[in-house]
Amino acid sequence: MRTDRSAPSEDPGPIDGHVWTMRTVRYILPAVVILAGLVVMVLGSETDLEGGGGIVSAGLAIFFINWLFRIGASGDREREAEDAARDYFDRHGRWPD
Predict the structure, then answer these.
(1) What pTM was computed for the model?
(2) What share of the chain is helix, strand, coil (3-state, %, to 5)?
(3) Each residue of 30-44: b (16+ CB within 10 Å) or e?
């Protein structure tokens, strides 16, 4: 039985200095890439439509990879919270609130 875990209701969240960086990578970077692809499509010739579509697809891929990573990380947090709750139950005989 490990006792080094925090209570299940505690969520430390990201470090304050990294919030801006995380939001930039999650939302601003994909938006800039998608916007660049749209600009290429609008201002380019007919052959640039395919290149612009590829750039837009890359921006969407960046967004969805970030989304999938957040889904996986939330599953890890849920498992850790469940383990901490089970440890609490083993120590106190009741499920934490």
Answers:
(1) 0.64
(2) 75, 0, 25
(3) beebbeebeebbeee
pLDDT, tens digit, for every residue of 12-52?
A: 555 666 888 888 889 999 999 999 999 999 998 888 999 99
Q: Burial, 8: exposed, middle or buried (Cβ in 10 Å; 0-12, 13-18, 19+)?
A: buried
Other Cβ atoms within 10 Å of 91 Cβ, number: 10
Beta-carbon contacts of 42 under 8 Å, excluding residues fewer than 6 positions away, are 52
DSSP-derived 3-state class of residue 52: helix
* Token pair 């439509």 in the structure block, residue: 49
**Maximum separation of any 2 CA atoms in the chain, in Å:** 71
The answer to whether residues 86 and 1 touch, using CB atoms and an 8 Å cutoff, is: no
